[in-house]
Structures are given as C-alpha cells and as structure tokens.
UniProtKB/TrEMBL annotation:
Organism: Lithocarpus litseifolius
Name of protein: Cellulose synthase-like protein H1
Any single GO BP term: cell wall organization
GO cellular component, one term: endomembrane system
TM spans (from-to): 22-41, 47-67, 565-585, 606-624, 655-675, 687-705, 717-735
Bilayer disposition of the protein: Multi-pass membrane protein
Record bears the keyword Secreted: no
Domain of life: Eukaryota
Broad class of the protein's primary localization: membrane
InterPro entries: Cellulose_synth, Nucleotide-diphossugar_trans
Amino acid sequence: MANPIALPLYEKIPRKNTLQRLVDILIFFLLLSLLIYRFLFLKNHGLTWLLAFLCESWFTFTWALVISTKWNPVEYKTHPDRLLQRVPELPSVDMFVTTADPVLEPPIITVNTVLSLLAIDYPADKLACYVSDDGCSPITYYSLVEASKFAKLWVVFCKKYNIHVRAPFRYFSSNPQTFGDSSSDFQQEWKRMKDEYERLSHKIEDAVQKSVPSDFTGDFAEFSNIERKNHPAIIKVIWENKTSLLDGLPHLVYISREKRPKHPHHYKAGAMNVLARVSGLMTNAPYMLNVDCDMFVNNPKTALHAMCPLLGSKSENKIAFSQFPQVFYGGLKDDPYGNQMVVLFKYMAHGIAGLQGPFYSGTGCIHSRKVIYGLSPDDVDSVNEKTANNILSNFGSSKELIKSGANALKGKTDPPPNLSNSIQASYQVSGSGYEYGTSWGTKVGWKYGSTTEDIHTGLMIHKRGWRSILLSPNPPAFLGCAPSGGPSSATQQKRWATGLLEILFSKSCPIFATLFGELQFRQCLAYLWVLMWGLRSIPELCYAALPAYCLITNCHFLPKVQEPTLYVLAAIFVIYNVYTLSEYLRSGQSVRAWWNNQRMSRINTMNAWLFGFLSVILKLLGISETVFEVTQKDQSSDDASDAEAGRFTFNESPIFLPGSTILVVHLTALVVSLLKLQPPARDGHGSGLGEVFCSVYLVLCFWPFLKGLFGKGRHGIPSSTICKSAALALLFVYFSRRATID
C-alpha cells in the first residue's frame, strides 16, 4: 500500500480535445479565407463591403483568442482524505460574506449562506465568519443574531448525521429520506430542525414586513437614525467560540463599515478590504474564503478540497488561490436567459485553468492572506525585513493592523485571546477615511477602479507571477441563484461589461502586465478575451445593421450565389452552430438551451454590453462615473410548472432600446423587400436571399422582443420604448435611403 505521505494532495489531469482543436482551426482558416476574399475585392464594392470586412476581422481576432484559451484544458482532482493524514494541524480560514441591499438581497438568503458556512467539515476553532453589510440594515443584523441561535442546533445536527446539503432552505425542500440515517431518532430530530428553521424564517419575514426588527434599544441602539450611505461603522461580535471547541460554533461577526457622502467607498472591493483588515485584527487566518450572499456551501468538504493545492508540496510559492466554478441551483429549464454558464465553465474555464490559472470570479474562492497583502512568489519562502516593511508601510496608521500584517507575512497567527479586545482597532480600520495615504486598493488588498473588482484583483495577482487553480469537486462546492428576469440579467451583464472595459482601458491592462510584469502571454490573451466583451457590441451592432441596410437600399454585403466564397460563409455558419450545439449536448444541455444561449448572446451583446461600453466612454471623457448596480437575488425554485417561468420580462430601462430598435429595423427591411419597395440596384447586383436569411435569423434571435411588442405588463415592452424604437428605425430607413440617393 502506498505511503499516504508520499501521495500527492491533488492531480492535474489534461483533457483530450483533438477533435475540438481541429474544428477550431478549421473555422479559423475559413474566417481567414473570407477576409482575404474581402480584401482582394475591396475596391470593387462600396461601404457595406468595407464595414463587413472590418467586422469579420474583429470576429476572426476574437476566435483566435478563443482558440488560444481553449487549447490546453485541464482538470484537477483533489484528495482531502490524504490532506487529513499528512497535515498535523489545518490552517485557520476566515470566511467572508458580502451583502449590500436587504431588498435586492433578502436577509433569509444571506442567513442560509452563513449557516452553510458555519456547518462545513472543518475544525470550528479554525473558522471565523465575517458578514459585511453595506446596506447597514438592522434587519440583516437581527436575522444573523437569530440565525446564530438556530446554528447551535443546526451545526450539531449536520455533523451528527453527515448531512450533505447544509443550507437549511435547500435541505428541507428535499425528501428527508434521501439524507443521512432514516432511524426514528433521525426523523424526530429532522422534524425538530425543520420546525426550528420555519420559526426562524417567520421571525425574519415578520421583521422584513415591519421594516424594523425591534425598538432601537440595547443591541440595536447603534442603528437608530442612520442613513444607508451616511453612518458610522458598526461592528458586532454575534458569537464567539471562546472555549475553542473543535465541534463548536465558529466565530460570527457582523460588520457595516463607515460611509460618508464625500468619501468614496469603492463598492464591493472596499467592503472586502475592510473585511481583510478587521479579520486580520481579530483572527488573522492565513487563508480567506469569500462568497456572495446567495452562494451557499453545497459540498461540506469544500475547504478541505481548496486546501489540497494550497498546502500541497511546493505549492505555497506558486498557487495564490483556489477558485470554484459558479454553479446555480433551481435554474429555469433550458436556461432562457443564457446566464447559467454551464458550457462556458466546462470549456473556457478549464482551458484557462491549463494556462496560468482561472480568473478570480469574486465568489467561491479561497485566497492566501499573504498574496492579498501583496507578497510575490519569490518572497514567500523567506520574507526578509525589507520586504515586510515595504508592504506594511502601505497598511495605514493602525499599529495593531501593522503588527497582525507582519505576523501574517511571516506565517504566524497570533490573534488576541478574545475578539472583543480588537473591537476598538477594528472601528479605526473600518473608518471611511482610513485608507487615505495608504495603498489599499492599489498595491494591497482588493483592487479599486472597476466594478468587476474580482477580475481586476485576480489579474494583479497573476501579474506578480502567481498561479491559480480551478477545482470542480462532485458535488459542486457552492450553489447560487442566477438572475431570473430580463432586467436583472441585463443589469448584471451591463455591470460586467462596464467593469471589464474599465480594466482594459486602465494601467492594469493585461498587455502592460505581460510587458512589464509576470503575466504569461497566453494568459494575457485569455484576459483580453473576457475584458473585450463590451467592445464586441460595436462590431456586432454594425454587422447586425448590414442586412437591413442592404435590403432597404437594394445592395449586398454577401457574395452572390454564383461566387464560391458564399460556400465559405455557409460553411462557417453551419460548422460553428453544429460545433457549439455538440458542446451543449456533451454538457448535458438540451437543444433548446443551446438556442436560448445563442440568442441571448446576441441580445446581451447589443443591449447590456453596448450600455456598458457607453458607460466607460462617458467615464473616460469625464462626463460621468460608473455605478455598481446590485443584482436582484431570489431563492430559485425547482418548480418548473410555473407558466410564467422563463418568459422574458422588461421594464422602463433604456437598456432594452437597442434590441427593440434592431428588431423594428429588420421587420421594416423584410417588409420593404417583400413588397419590392427597394430602389433599383446600382451595379445590377442587389440584395439577395443571403441578406434576407440574415435578417430573418436576427428576428428569430430577438423573438422575445417580438413577443414583447404585443405583450402586456412586465412581459411587454413599455410603449415609450416602442415609440423610441420606431422613431430610431424610421431615422435608419431615412438615412439609408438618403445615402443611396447621394
């Protein structure tokens, strides 16, 4: 039998993808041949040909980035059983949960996430859970206090019966017979736990309905007369594991950092940095796990899985963080909003894992505190005094924080015996003005300057030469809820596009990180692929307008039927769609899910991503600043029988205006073509079936918008948006005809 000490804690397993590589290269060469044809005959055609050439050049460049990113997919297999045999004492882990709005992010969701974290399979005396409440809500605090009482029962129950799903709302929605022991003792305890959880849920619901949990006295006195964006810091130790019991309840701390109108708070990145500072003072664990408030633990051994690569032989000076993919529970059937990202994570994420490592996705990640504090791989083995002083000089004026930072960099954990001893210093480092004159947000901690602080922070970590690792245990480590409506999905996509472009147009651009840092070239290409999401809106919008323009003006941008190049275009269309369909089928998705993702790709690019692009342009011009918009969180349901589920929803937001306009323009163009209202072709070669096919295809992509034109309520496009779209469509037709006359 092999010696467990000699066996690796994790294995890197390359995926075989010879066929995928061949198809990727075939599509790339077909795109190149199309570009060569366009270029050779550029002088013989007009503006439409040139515009098509430019758009197709962009698509070819994007496809080259995709090929590079997907070329070397890998998987990692971890062995937590070997970890327990090899490591005499597991390191401490500080767990961070962030919430920002008790309305968009209901407290019951946050409570379930916290309960699942408190119950993970890890020594309780090595854990501490910190909840950052940027909404400064007394309801959120009240919910956590009540949850801590229930947790004393729930954690014991989970570990006694080895419960796999440790978010109570998810557990009790399942058949109890499928979990643990089915003895009479178990059944009695199960009923007791369910009654206790229902009692907890009712208390939280009652508090939400009343808007205030109780009188603002005692523990709630600090919440009286506060404004959400103008209040002092509030830090509460809800529960402290004073006896350091291995099977007890981990520390639970509530934090609402100080906010003042004239002090920038840097959204989630600012909250994460406050969590890093406060936890550094209180527990100073060498590792930090962070999750969004809706991302509950689905695999109780998650922390053990993450520790395998972080503590594996020679890993400490290579791997900065363990990232788990985002997986969603109770998603709508066939992914109607295209936001469950199953195929994206299976192919693109595993491809990136074969490079320098996955991007930091802002949730489901365990970081090394040393790395977050700014340490480089070369300095890990022996942190000399000069290196430590250089880093600590950026920490600010708190002597206690500098001392804890020095201990963290040297690999020592020497937290105070009681959390309450650090309260005063914690208030200082949670102040709105503490970061002035420091390097928090630039050289230390989570990075500022982008609404996608996760990608930005991960990029800066990779720039220093660190690697990251993607772990996909079975069952998935975390489960979250995907946006379940058109407006919330569009808001999320817009925020992503905005933040990614902010990074691309900043000093943190991955090109600079490769030229002047330690970011690997192909990792740079992978970052460019994701950072340019917002830029894609312009060529896609232009390419989408071409068929309509050609039908209205009776010109063409596609090769004619008698030209062999038409078969190149047809081959690209057919091969690409069959190829992507095969990816969805191999991932266990349906044909309908594939089509939903295809059309949502067009809808998101020409709507949400376009507005993200415009937001960044306005920021660069100094006209306005970008805003972090919180996404609506709901406890998704597995009940797919709801007739309303999956139907596209709209609101008054202008984010739906471009899509509505594109649809009206193409409907108009098809009517013009059908009724033969086109002017005579200038060169005898007017629009043909190719342009008609493209226009029909785009109408099919925007089918939810077509239904929205005739829908009512939230399933209908508001009349004001329809009127604006009609006006813009008329302007497009007018200027198209005018250009033909000129």
